[in-house]
Amino acid sequence: YLVTADDVDTILAVEVQPLDNRERKGGIVKVYANEERKIPCDPETKELIKQTLSVGHVSYEVLLPAVPVLETWEPAVLAVTRKGYSIKCNGQCGVVVTETFQQYMAYPMWASY
Hints:
mainly beta; 1 helix
C-alpha cells in the first residue's frame, strides 16, 4: 500500500486474509500503519500541497514501464488538475491515461484554504 496525501491525519489499516501453503484461508488480520497513530505530514509538505491546490494544477516528469519489455522505462508527464489527471508519454505511446475525478472526491480537511 502506498501512503498518499489523502491518508494524512488518518489512522490507516489494511485487512488481509492469509493463506497457508495449501491455500486454506486463515482469519482476517488487521495491520496498522504507523503503529496505530495518525499518518503525519511535515509542515513543508502541507504547505506545498496547499499551494498546489490554490493554483489548481501541477505536472511531474515520471517514468513509465515500456510495453512489452518491462525492464525499460519511457519518460512521461503526469498532469493533475482540479478536474482530473492525465499521463502522457514523450515517446511513441502518446496519451496513456486520462481520468476525471468523481463528483464525490473532495480535498482533505487539512488542505483547505
